[in-house]
Every structure is written in structure tokens, then in C-alpha cells.
Amino acid sequence: MALESILSQWPPKLSDIQINELTLLATSYAFANGLLYLPPAERQPSIPESAIHAPLALFPSPFPRNLFEQAKRLQHIYNVLYARIAQDEEFLDRIMGTENGVGKVDEFIGQLWTGWKQLRDEGLVQVVHTFRCSAWRAQCVRSATPRVQITRKVRLGSVLPFILQALLITLESSYGIHAIRQTFDELSKSATVDPTTRVLRISCSPDIHPEGFVEISTVYFRAGYAPTEYLTPQHYQTRFLLERSKAINCPSIALQLAGGKKIQQVLTQPGVLESFLSDGQRWGTGVYDAQALDELRSSFMGMWSLDVGADLLTPDHDALTSGKEGFGVSKARELAHSLVLKPQREGGGNNVYKESIPPFLDSLPPEERQAWIAMELIVPPNGTGNYLVRAGGASQTPFRVDVVSELGIFGWALFGDKDGGVREKEAGWLVRTKGKDSDEGGVATGFSVLDSVLLVDE
Do the annotations mark residue 20 as ligand-binding? Predict the structure, then answer.
């Protein structure tokens, strides 16, 4: 059946009895499989006392099979691309540093880059291990080390302890990997790095381990992606301490900087993708042809930095020094109804959309334009609906609404050895769905719901 026909008839029409029965089945499945939240509260208890199911869609969302397969295929090249960006110190210094890059005008990025630069000056280089994932699904690589400890930097008061705990149990039972969850505050007291061996140790009660400490092989960050998660200067120092160790940091600071929105914008410029993916002299046999790069570029949306001139490439220094409105800002103002403005942040709630753009530009200091990019909005197909179910409110009755869905592909990469190779793999997918009138996204932030796909041949 053609996609247009599916969309016009989706979701299927149901009676109230059918909707109620399907809701019971879906929410029961969520409870039985750990898709759970802590109920909303000003302060979460130290030991969970109750749970609510995650927000979800009753029906899978129609999705073109060819685009689904293309997204999975592109994940491999994205893995390699970002692994190489994270290892290009000169590129990251130029784009994200405090001298001429984003870190000059974005205090948070500047703090991270400055700490990373100091570590490099001391001769400390991370061997980077990254697996892209969400709180809902993760892939981990088993280490050859017989006894492995992983510490997870977690958000204080996280509403997702059940999903995290399910992952920790899987690591322990299936791979023999023990994990410890600690916040920056806790790590500031418990973490030490041997100055000679760079071994990372976490102190603990002898009741937990007879030696009074455990050695850590991997640090996986569930927090640390926004300035609001570094509440004191000591939190930054704790992050740098972890980076100083020989434990694999996921992500390393270099990889976190590589994931910045400014990097995405620079990758759209002529020749940049080629330098990371097609330069045989630089990368040896691990290069991609023009067809592969064209397919990768087809997944990009148009974007530019707010500080650029008419070529959409170089900064408009005259406008910046005079305080006048440059070409990048004028273009964003003109096309505001079809744009989103993005800072160097992760998670929902940071972007500026459509009609909110002009007044935001009026208030944005000229020196901060460099830290923001304008991106064309993705225009979703019309006519797709679904029933969305949320918990924690006055009613759990599903509500039908026109929706837009976002497909995310997971992948992991292990890199940093002297040979320059990248071991990587595509590792699953996630669909998040939200009401079409909602600009922001994200399940944990409350904008979207968990969904699945109904693959359709066009």
C-alpha cells in the first residue's frame, strides 16, 4: 500500500472499548518491561516508592522502508566522521576554542575546551570510546579485562532510575561488568587518579569491596551536557579529573565538543566532509567516494551561523564590530517562519522557533551570534495521526492528535589507537513522536512519546 494511502487512513478507527483495551495492553507492557518514570515531585526519595509508565504511542508510525534502511546505512559513516573529528585537535581548537571559536562567546563551551587544552598541554590524551545511545536503549562493548568496573555520572534526581538499573543489571548478568552510579558531588569526594599510572579509583566502604576502592575502566556520562549540570567550579574540576585518567570517557571532552551544533554547521561547508572522509593521504584506505558523501549530504538541512556574511561562510566582522545587523541575522529574520535557532546545547528546551526568532534576535548581543546557528526546519508529511498516552496527570485517556515522528539510529565507535582505525557498528534505533504543533522534542523532557515503526514500501 502506498505511503500516501497509509497516512490518510492512520491511525485505524477504534471504538472506545477497543481504545481502552489497547491502552491497558500497552501500559501493562511498559510496566512489565521497565519503561518507567518516577512520578513528578519536587524532590525524589532516595529509595523509589512508586512508578508511572513512560509516555507512549498506541500505534506504530508509518515510515518509508527505503529511508529507514538509508538511515541505518548512513550511521556507519557518521560513526567514522565523528570519530575523526574528535581526534582533530586543530579543527576543534579553531571551531570550538576560546581564541577564535565558539568558546570565546559561550562560557560553558569555553570551560570545557580550556580544561581539555590544559590536559593536552600536560600530555594527557584520551583513547576515546563512544556509544551513541539514549536512556531507553544502549549498546555496550565487553572489555577483555577480566574484572571491569564502570562508573556512570548521573543526574541528581533523575526520573529514569528504573531504565538505568535495568541496563546495569544486564551489564552484570550478561557480561560480568559491575557499574557504579555517582553524581559529580559524590565523585568529587570518592574519585582519585594515580599520578603515575593514571588509574582511576573510586573509594567505597570495605563492606562493598574489601580493598576500600574499585578501579574504573569506563566512565559513561548520563549528565554533564549543559551548564546547569555543573553547579559549582568543583564539578568542572571533577570532569577534568575523570578525563585525566586512563579510563575510557564516554564521551571524552573532545567528542562532546565534536557533537556541537557549530560543528554540524561547519560540516555543510564545501570541502569539509572531504577532508574527514575522502583524503586518502590522511586516512589511508578508510575513505569514501563522492557517491557516499552525496548520500550523507542528503541527510543535512540547510544551516548557517548568525555571524556570517553574504557568502554564508566567513564571519561578517564589520557588522560584529559596529553592532549592526549582519547578513546571517537578516537572513534568519527574513526566513524565521521556516527556521529554528540552535545554541551549543543538548536536550530539549534550548532552541528558538519560528515567530519567536525575531524578538530573540532583537535581544541577542552581537558578540554572541557566533554561538548560534540557523537551521531550516524539516517539513513533515501531512495527515499522520496517533493516539498518545501519558501518565502522571489527571487522566490517562489516550488523545488523538496529528503527529510528527523522529527516527534516531544508534551506533558505537571505538577509536584512538595509533593506527587511526575506527571500530564501529550500527546498533539499533529509536522513534520519538510528538504532536505536530510542538516545536521541541525529547521523551525525558516531556515533549515526545516512545513509538515504533510500521515500514511501508513506497
Answer: no
351 is in an annotated binding site: yes
Neighbours of 407 (CB within 10 A): 16
Residue 315 marked as a ligand binder: no
Residue 110 CA to residue 227 CA, distance in Å, equals 11
Does 280 belong to an annotated binding site? no
Q: Residue 153 pLDDT > 50, yes or no? A: yes
Find out whether 104 is annotated in a ligand binding site: no
Amino acid of residue 225: Y
Strands (DSSP E) found in 155-276: 177-182, 191-193, 200-203, 213-216, 218-221, 248-250
Instruction: For residue 343, say whether it is annotated as part of any ligand binding site.
Output: yes
User: 378 labelled as ligand-binding?
Assistant: yes
pTM: 0.88
Q: Alpha-carbon Rg of the chain, whole angstroms? A: 23
Is 309 one of the annotated binding-site residues?
A: no
> In CATH terms, are 133-250 and 265-376 the same topology?
no
In CATH, what number does 133-250 get? 3.40.50.1760
Is the CB of residue 3 less than 8 Å from the CB of residue 62? yes
Q: Is 43 annotated as a binding residue?
A: no
The answer to whether 350 is a known ligand-binding residue is yes
Q: Which pLDDT tens digit goes with each residue over 9-27?
A: 789 889 999 999 999 999 9
The domain covering 265-376 belongs, at the CATH homologous superfamily level, to Glutathione synthase lid domain (3.30.1490.50)
Percent of the chain as helix, strand, coil, to the nearest 5? 40, 25, 40
**Which secondary structure element, helix H or strand E, spans residue 90, and what is its range?**
helix 89-96
* Three-class secondary structure of residue 255 per DSSP: helix
